[in-house]
Amino acid sequence: MSDFLDAAGASNGSMYHHFPGGKEELAAAAIEAAADAVEAALLGAFDDTDDVVVATQRSIDGMISALEADPRDGCPVAPTALDAAGTSEPLRLAAAAAFARWSGVFERAFARSRDAGTAASQAQVLLSAIEGALLLDRTSHGTTHLKALRDAVPVLLA
Fold first, then answer.
1. Which of 5, 34, 49, 108 is such that its CA lies 20 to 30 A from the CA of 40?
2. Please, what is the angle between helix 89-110 and helix 52-69, to 10°?
3. What distance in Å separates the CA atoms of residue 38 and residue 57, rounded to the nearest whole number?
4. Class of 27-156 per CATH?
5. DSSP label of 157
6. In angstroms, what CA-CA distances link 115 with 39, 111, 122?
């Protein structure tokens, strides 16, 4: 926490003034900010076209580009979600809400061209596949899993 405060040029008192709940509240705010950014990127991809396959592949291409630029990139919520799932209910809930928002973007886009049940299932499968591919690619410092997923999207969304 002291490294974070030093980098921000802030004092301990300043942090607790803005985040009276301490580290946990700060982490929840970081999750929410990351959720906002990812949701905006997804919405942008789906607003550009009615073709859900193309939009999904564009989203995955963005993830591939980010990992190629920085192999430390990946899901901004997953590390906290994995660490906090068994230790912090507020952080678990914040991470679950972020994932639900992203799945909701997919679901609403898919519901334009298929029934609600299929849209919901496909959104859940897609988000699960993306999160898995991001984890595998981040640990291997590659992009083969995301590229394979991008290529499989037409079949997954058929």
1. 5
2. 140
3. 15
4. mainly alpha
5. T
6. 22, 6, 11
